């Protein structure tokens, strides 16, 4: 094979990814050049290592139009090495009998993913969408000597598996860089116009889209505009716990199994006509004793324990009712809010939105809870353009315990009625 001299311009931010590592990650906002860098590096690797086998994956891939195939083809052409590759409708054949294929991880099972065992490089596109199941299946599958897993993504949530892996856990065999438009020496002028326009007209989404920050609010979320208003009014700030005032904890009950729903708790105090949300707790797969220990560790032994109607149910692990468990754990003020019936979710949302203008949030301790509220949104029937009620996803557990607090709120004596409800959209 004749020697090929490639001239590939590389932005300085990506240079740490040029050294061999088992895991390589690049995250950031739009226009950073992440995908272009990985596509060029993949073409280069195919030329340097004849016979190399690579797979480009994403969580869901309904067609090849959603994959990086076209981008890689463009890079092959731009680098002037098209004569060394054979591009078919479904794959790219590389020098020395190598191969690049494109697949969706969601379509794989524990058995079918074994077909990727012989691959040397795996590039994960849109890594923020990769589920924990897919990530756990993929990592041990790419096992060839010297194999690498590359991931590019725009951060969505701190708890997304890829984000936790690269940014929370410290690993000697991983390298990760943050790249935004400002690190791209070749950032195109047309995108610069878009960026400035978004910063001016859509400031609430700008940081996520362009600066690679986590999503805090999504379009159509029930509490989206109310959270924006709270931030502008300085109602999201550091709050102090007043030991002379009652402390209320509102719970959404989860299970102890690995696949169980999350257990969430919002803690608040009522300061005159204001509602101060002081803390938020969320965990999955833990026992009731674990939740009680957290309350004690935080100094919340005197808190009122307010449970949803399923607090009267029997816990599968202990065989006791949830309310009895909390009493036996030493919490004296325990009660269960009656079932609101088939329209319970709607009632919680309406109560939360009506009371939101008088709510204050501790900026640090309630961050995860506010992320849940900012995400909590209506499920849509796209074909009929009809709302189908709240989407049941990761955010609904935090939103439900928050809504329970709103439903349970009682107006203090001598205080005028709560602010009038402002119509921020219909609730199905």
Order of helices and strands: EHEHEEEEHEHEHHHEEEEHEHEHEHEEH
Task: State the end-to-end distance.
Answer: 65 Å
Overall tally of domains? 2
CATH architecture classification name of the largest domain: 2-Layer Sandwich
Largest sheet: 8 strands, mixed
Q: Helix segment count?
A: 12
Low-confidence stretches: 417-428
- What is the percentage of strand-forming residues? 15-25%
CATH topology (fold) name of the largest domain: Nucleotidyltransferase, domain 5
Q: Output the strand order for the largest sheet.
A: 3-4-5-2-6-7-1-8
Beta-strand segment tally: 17
**Helical content, roughly?**
25-40%
Name of the CATH class of the largest domain: Alpha Beta
Shape category: elongated
List the helices and strands and how they pair.
Elements: E1 23-27, H1 34-48, E2 53-58, H2 69-78, E3 86-87, E4 92-94, E5 98-104, E6 121-124, H3 132-141, E7 148-153, H4 161-168, E8 174-178, H5 189-201, H6 203-211, H7 224-232, E9 236-237, E10 248-252, E11 263-271, E12 274-283, H8 288-297, E13 304-307, H9 322-328, E14 334-336, H10 344-355, E15 359-362, H11 367-375, E16 378-381, E17 386-390, H12 396-408
Helix pairs in contact: 1-2, 5-6, 10-12
